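Q: I have 462 residues here and want to know how they pack in 3D. Can you give me a structure?
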Amino acid sequence: MTTTADPRDVASGSDADPPRLRRIVLASTAPDAVAERMALCRRGAVPDGTVRRAARTILDDVRDRGAAAVRDAATAYGGGPADGGDLILERDVLANARDRLTRQDRRALEQAIRHVTRFAEPQLPTSTTVSTSPGIDIERRWLPLDRVGCYVPGGSAPYPSSLVMTVVPARVAGVPEIVVASPAAADGTVNALLLGAAGLLDVDRLLVAGGAQAIGALAFGLADVAPPLAPVDRIVGPGNAWVTAAKLEVAGLVGIDLPAGPSEGVVLADADADPVLVAADLVTQAEHGPDSPAILVTTSSALADAVEREIADLLPRLERRAILARSLAEHGGIALAADLDEAIAFIDDYAPEHLSIDVRDPDAAAGRIRHAGSIFVGPWAPESAGDYATGANHVLPTGGLARSCGPLGVEAFGRYSQIQRLTAAGLAAIRETVGHLAAAEGLTAHRNAVEVRFRDRPESVR
């Protein structure tokens, strides 16, 4: 889930004509159609070089000047606290925000936290020990990270749901220290619901900053605040192009979850689908931001026509209609497939972040999908349910990375170490193999490290 909405678009009440979704006939062999399909399916999640260079400049400044650079970047780009406000909010502030939550807000957050926790707990990895040979035991020990940074988008809109999705699996993993970074609104304040969620989850500290400067503070630490902010071991969470670019730049210094492009969704529907539901799901996806792809893949041109009519009827009634219209006009689409096989082949090639399935046998179709971040099966499974409250994580691979990456999970907040225990008999059993391979690679010191252990030793240890 990546959000890139511009607050200037939110309140617009434009009465412009509803957007027409561009159509692609998947069976077409026309060069333009083939090129368009290829471009859709190889879109990528990595920001362009210009953004990465600009992010690198901000990161270098944060590394050199610490908190002063973070504040200067906030002055230039927004997202920082109001003048004189605290750059870092401590536990007591977050606890006070928790205690001021309304009963309804607290109940909603607690249910979301409870469901995400239930889904996360079985993911906790376990340590294993294997004996590869008598006298050789290898333990693969899983340990939580010491300190993680969770980035939560903000600014134009608060996202306490993203805070829940990133902090809960870290807590389940056993991470002892969690720092959240989230930008303030235009007036320099941090949303009360987000602060309350941080208090509910016992977040250690909250950095009031966004963009590349927040990533820099998490990665390098801030020595010039009291108490100092130590560097984290891994940074997770969705964000815009600046956040993604900065995460990629610091990836050699700290761990990151994955690069995230704009949020995206595909709806697979056939002639039996309800166009009202399909339109609602497409518009839900477009609401993430003006650059969020929302694509209908269908075997029915009649359904495609009906969905467009429903979108035209729905948009004027929604708050973010300007964002929605822009997103659908620029990044929406309808892919017409000859049959379900062709539709599924396209979806697997596209590898969407979100996939909603509304066909005659949705479970069978879902079982055939290999590449999708999160799949919503049937007419009663809207994407928004997963964004907030089912318990599944909404931090997902975008830009086609669902081919190689999965949703954020507990395993992202820990690591394995290998512990090798050998007896004299165990080493003797592989002595010849180690010596032969080490000599073949020209690493005679490696061979010697084995041989010296048997030189002038009593027979009992040979």
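Q: Anything worth noting?
A: The CA atoms of residues 240 and 432 lie 55 Å apart. The mean pLDDT is 93.
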